[in-house]
Design a protein that fits this description.
By secondary structure, the protein is an alpha+beta fold. It is built from eleven helices and 35 strands. Strands 2, 3, 4, 5 and 6 form a five-stranded antiparallel beta sheet that branches. Strands 7, 8, 9, 10 and 11 form a five-stranded antiparallel beta sheet that branches.
Length: 651
């Protein structure tokens, strides 16, 4: 908004300068009535009475259709009422009628042509201005940016992205404005902002509308009729610009114009427990300030939150920042994403994809189609953001785009538009994302965590770690009332899943998804945690050895270090490390190999400070299979490392 105001002020000043600098000799042969009508029209324009000005100009054209000044004023009316295509037509007509047009008219015309996507024509008029204007310095920055937009726009239109938006229908959309969508990783819950007329409960005195959240659930592939999210999330203030965590457990959103916040808009969060939302809580300082904080988006690691703010220390009017939730409700000092993402212009509406590495955002500072475009940037493995990429035409247009949300599999985009054919105002749409601009696909694992004996639901911590980088890619927890959980599983890497609870030994899984899958069925798995009773055995599914050897590969260290932490936390526990093989090879060989592997794990634990008298190791060879050795999948399951509770000693 700040950038638009600046450009508007510059434009109005140029119009006034241009109109006042027209030589009287151009009008000397013109009917005095026409000149008088134009003077009155200009006075109306200065008073922002555009309807009256247009009426006066119509009277001019009824008398004289060749009066260039009248077309300039008509262009001004169209420009100031945001009708760029008509403004460009009027200015071009004036250029043709003037014997020697003022150079500034070429610039003004190019600006209007840029707004309506006439890139080739705009380029020509910018270049005409550069040739004919004696003063190129004042507008040099504007022209340089305009020419870059023209070049990009012409190329983008010539190479369009696949884009066929579909309205989400009357169960989602209405005669009011619907926008800023968000959805869970399983695409079963959709939450969005609705701007409705104010009612008797609306607190904001100067607001004619009020923003609230609505949600819909997908049943058998169909979005159900929307419902207001209700208290305590919806209030009589303006709620909007929200995101829901991929697992559906947390809602982060913006609350504006209250008498209880720190600035004009603040960030809030709420947790879902069972089927109810907790009372919202303010992020508080250092995240919220007296400035504007809005549009949060949470990464699947469960702790990194991206948001927009116009606080000092940025690069432009509003920038994208990030903070980390170090514990529930406690946040780090926000960090600016830096000049690769942020510019002198406006960067807003961040959306971090469930791959944790692809950031979508809106910008008018990076070169695009004109106005505000949607871009994406990928985080490298060194943590640095790559040069942003424009999503291209016709996803982006010369008009302002608001935001975009991409589903976990990277195939579908959701956005809002006021395009013709909707239900009224802004409507929500979806479309199949062009393969050229898709993020890394992500699938998910969904199920319940329960006690293995009582089947009571457990509130367990769930973490997925990329074994190649040892970085956490997803962190969540199971619902304390239902035990349900949803955790994103990125493709293209080898992933460890660790499920932990303070009263149970940890549980692990492995997802070897080194291939980047475009379509992958979600994993459905209920996890039953066993208590640390004597004789209980636990499989370590993320310990790997070189082929036919007892040498640990580096991907094993994350799991082993988890075991070290568990043993140091439970200091009186004694365990046996057991090695197991499939039935390939002789029994004697398999027993020896399994023993050597168990000893390697034993030695690693001792090297990390676990007392030897708490540990034993044994090789079982092929004698204790837990799957059918007739299949490769079964044999892989049988090749495993376990630990067994053998007793309890003194702390």
């Amino acid at each position: 908004m700040m950038t638009l105001k600046i450009r508007y002020s510059i434009f109005c000043a140029l119009l006034l300068f241009f109109a006042l600098s027209l030589p009287l000799s151009l009008f000397s042969q013109t009917n005095k009535k026409v000149v008088k009508l134009c003077d009155k029209a200009m006075e109306c324009i200065n008073n922002q009475n555009y309807t009256k000005a247009n009426s006066l100009l119509e009277k001019v054209f009824a008398v004289d259709t060749s009066y260039a000044r009248a077309y300039v004023l008509q262009g001004d009316v169209f420009s100031l009422t945001l009708q760029a295509d008509k403004a460009a037509d009027s200015y071009n007509r004036a250029i043709k009628l003037f014997r020697t047009p003022k150079p500034i008219l070429y610039f003004i015309t190019a600006e209007e042509e840029l707004k309506c996507g006439r890139y080739a024509a705009a380029k020509k008029n910018y270049e005409e201005f550069l040739v004919k204007s004696p003063d190129k310095v004042t507008l040099a920055k504007n022209i340089d940016k305009g020419l870059k937009i023209c070049k990009f726009g012409m190329k983008a239109v010539a190479q369009p992205m696949s884009f066929e938006p579909v309205n989400l229908g009357q169960n989602i959309n209405s005669e009011w404005d619907e926008y800023l969508p968000t959805l869970t990783a399983d695409e079963e819950e959709f939450i969005f902002t609705v701007r409705r007329p104010r009612d008797e409960k609306t607190i904001c005195n100067f607001c004619q509308t009020e923003e609230d959240f609505y949600s819909s659930r997908k049943v058998d592939g169909v979005w159900q009729p929307r419902k207001a999210l209700g208290a305590p999330i919806n209030s009589s203030y303006n709620e909007g610009a929200q995101c829901i965590s991929p697992d559906g457990r947390y809602l982060f959103y913006t609350l504006c114009n209250t008498d209880i916040g720190y600035g004009s808009c603040d960030l809030y969060w709420a947790e879902r427990i069972g089927n109810r939302w907790s009372r919202p809580k303010n992020f508080e300082p250092p995240v919220n300030t007296k400035y504007w904080e809005s549009q949060p988006s949470i990464s699947p690691d469960g702790k990194t939150i991206y948001f927009t703010s116009n606080r000092p220390g940025g690069y432009g009017g509003s920038d994208i920042w990030k903070t980390e939730m170090i514990e529930e409700g406690k946040f780090t000092v926000p960090e600016n994403l830096g000049p690769t993402i942020n510019t002198e212009g406006e960067e807003t509406a961040p959306f971090i994809h469930t791959d944790g590495r692809t950031l979508y955002f809106v910008s008018d500072g990076h070169t695009g189609m004109g106005g505000k475009d949607i871009f994406y940037s990928t985080m490298g493995y060194d943590g640095a953001w790559q040069t942003p990429v424009n999503l291209g035409y016709p996803i982006n247009t010369p008009s302002d785009e608001i935001n975009i949300v991409i589903n976990a599999s990277g195939t579908t985009g959701y956005f809002s538009s006021d395009k013709d054919g909707g239900f009224g105002g802004q409507d929500l749409y979806y479309f199949t994302l062009d393969e050229r601009i898709r993020p890394t696909p992500v699938t998910y694992i969904k199920g319940k965590v329960t006690d293995a004996f009582s089947l009571a639901p457990l509130n367990a911590q769930i973490e997925l770690i990329d074994l190649g980088t040892e970085q956490t890619v997803t962190a969540t927890s199971s619902d304390p009332i239902t035990g349900e959980f949803l955790a994103c599983v990125p493709t293209g890497c080898n992933v460890l899943m660790n499920v932990s609870h303070p009263h149970y030994p940890f549980y692990s899984e492995n997802f070897q998804l080194e291939k980047t899958y475009s379509e992958l069925e979600p994993f459905k798995k209920d996890i039953m945690l066993k208590k640390a009773e004597i004789g209980a055995t636990f499989v370590l599914k993320n310990i790997f050895f070189d082929f036919d050897k007892s040498t640990l590969v580096k991907e094993s260290f994350v799991e082993l270090d988890n075991l070290v932490v568990y043993l140091k936390t439970n200091k009186n526990l004694r365990i046996e490390i057991g090695g197991h093989t499939d039935n390939q090879g002789s029994e004697a060989y398999n027993e020896t190999l399994s023993l050597e592997r168990a000893k390697t794990v034993y030695s690693y634990l001792v090297s990390k400070g676990i007392a030897q008298d708490r540990l034993t190791y044994k090789g079982y060879g092929e004698s204790v299979p837990i799957a059918d050795n007739a299949t490769e999948e079964g044999r892989a399951t049988n090749r495993r490392t376990e630990f067994k509770i053998t007793g309890y000693g003194e702390d």
